[in-house]
Structures are given as structure tokens and as C-alpha cells.
Amino acid sequence: MCTLEKRGNILYLTLTGEDEHRLNPELIGSIRSALAQAKSQAVNGSALITTAHGKFFSNGFDLRYAQAAGSAQGAKDRLMNMVELFKPLVTDFISLPMPTIAAINGHAAAAGLMLAMCHDYVMMRSDKGVLYMSELDIGMTLPDYFTALIRSKISSAPACRALVLRAMKIKGDEAVQMGIVDSIHANGEEAFKAAVQLGEDLAKKRWNRKAYSEIRKSLHPELCALLGISDTVVVPSRL
């Protein structure tokens, strides 16, 4: 599942185990619980880093879990349930009152890539791992909030087309050029170190956590509208 560890002002969310970290109801619930705990521990100057064990950051929704329903309709119902369960997880990340950084340790596909892109910053290893939106290849449309998240995070129309209309498997150097990730690093350990360094640098700013959350939300109006997130005005306690 996942763990949450606090060291200083940095909170570390780790998807544990050596599997593909497929997003089924159990894992989605576990991540949401960890984020609720992180939110309760947040102070001005906190930051969150998310990473995973093994070869995968996350390989998307758990299609084996869906197929285990035993019928085509049951599989469809389970898949759509995961789509609905993942939506408030995106809300949790977009509303989190601290900077967030994803250190992608391996492959990130479909909803697993969306999980990474929920973060403010994304670091990726260059030696292994690809980013991949598989929906076109499996014959599935994108949930509306997936599309809004992609549009809000990737400013290049050609990059968006390559990701979702060509279903490209994108390596680290291409991901930087396309604006999907912020930086690439020699291996997973170096990507994680870079995430920690950035987290520590951001934590030193000691920004007002509520103001940070509201300013982040203001950058993604279409996404927030689909998620049902409302704005809150934050002003300095002392003017």
C-alpha cells in the first residue's frame, strides 16, 4: 500500500512493495488516508514528496481487479468506480496546503501518470521508465478531469497530442522537452535526491500553507470546476 513518514518539515509518501502499484479502491483509499494525515501535520514550511518502490511509480487503474468481477458489466462498473474514487484523490492533491513533488522511480502510466501530474513538480529518472497514457491503445475515453489536468499542466498542443492522441511511450529527455516533467536525473536515487533538495529549498520559504493551496487552485480553474473545488480568499493576518 503506502506509508507516510515525516522528517523535519518534509513528508514522504511512499507506495510500498515491488508490484505495479495499480490504483484499486484499496490503494486509492490508502493514499487518501496518508494525505489526510499529511494535511493534519502541515505547518508553514512543510512539503510533500511522493515516490514508490520497484520498477513502477504506478501502472494506472487495476484492470485485473476490474476483470475479476466476472462479467463485462461488472468489470465496467468496477472500472468506472475506480474513476470516481480517483477523482477526490486528485482533489486532495490540488488542495494540499504545501508544495508537492513527485519523484518518478519508474514507469508511470494512465492514472499512474495522472497521480504524478497532480504534484506541483515532477522529477524523473532518465535511465529507465516511460510515461504513457494507454487509454487510446485499450479503447477507453479519458475522464473529463484527466483531460483538464493534462491541459492545465502541459501548455504545448503538440505535446498533448503526442501523449493522448498518439499514446507515445515517453522517455525522460522527451518528457522534459514536452514540459511534462521538470527535470531528469541519472537514476531513481538521483531523482529522489533532487526531489528532497527541492523540498528542503521550498520548505525554507515557510509560506502560508492556506495561501499556497488557494494560489495553486487558482492556476487550474477548469480542473477545479470539474472537481467542485471552491476558492477561499486568504489575506495576511497583519496588514
TrEMBL record:
UniProt entry tagged with the keyword Cell division: no
GO biological process, one term: fatty acid beta-oxidation
Catalytic reaction equation(s): a (3E)-enoyl-CoA = a 4-saturated (2E)-enoyl-CoA; a (3Z)-enoyl-CoA = a 4-saturated (2E)-enoyl-CoA
EC number in record: 5.3.3.8
Lineage: superkingdom: Eukaryota
One Gene Ontology MF term: delta(3)-delta(2)-enoyl-CoA isomerase activity
Keyword Lipid metabolism found: yes
Record pathway: Lipid metabolism; fatty acid beta-oxidation
Entry's Gene Ontology cellular component terms: peroxisome
Keywords: Lipid metabolism
UniProt record similarity statement: Belongs to the enoyl-CoA hydratase/isomerase family.
PANTHER family: ENOYL-COA HYDRATASE-RELATED (PTHR11941), ENOYL-COA HYDRATASE_ISOMERASE FAMILY PROTEIN (PTHR11941:SF75)
Protein's recorded name: Delta(3)-Delta(2)-enoyl-CoA isomerase
Species assigned in the record: Lithospermum erythrorhizon
